[in-house]
Give the backbone structure.
Amino acid sequence: MDDREIIALRPIGVIRTPFTAFDGMPIQASAAGGAEGSIELDPDLVEGLEGLDGFSHLILVYHLDRVGDRRLTVTSFLADVPHGVFATRSPARPNPIGISTVRLLGIDGATIRIADVDMLDGTPLLDIKPYVPAMDDRAGARIGWYAERIGRLATTRSDDRFGGGRRSRREEEPGP
């Protein structure tokens, strides 16, 4: 697979949050406890916000620009044993892309106020999509190994196991 095409994306803005380090950061937006932040959108793109104020939630797609090693096997924050990276929400992915569903608090020009943030301050934003329950929620969805661990979501916080290229003591298997 060495002849794969490189895809270049240009950030559309930057996400501002109170989190400057991985340690203590929420691991998912749904467990962020209302932590507030904002998006500084490229002013040339403000026209694209027309109609967005009618939505209560947004799906943000962003670049995980400070993640260290990419791995195929990880021990995620909610796990005690390794899983394949595609069976986790780990940031140590082959393509470091993150997604979060956040609450929209307001829009003022190129600034979008949001809540339930779970990303580092200064994270490059790639896209914004409106959250639409009829399109995004799936009744009867199975959640695999998370079913045994989801009760820990609200109290589990990030550490530095995926940042700066350092591995946590909890990592049981080396990645690629």
The mean pLDDT is 90.
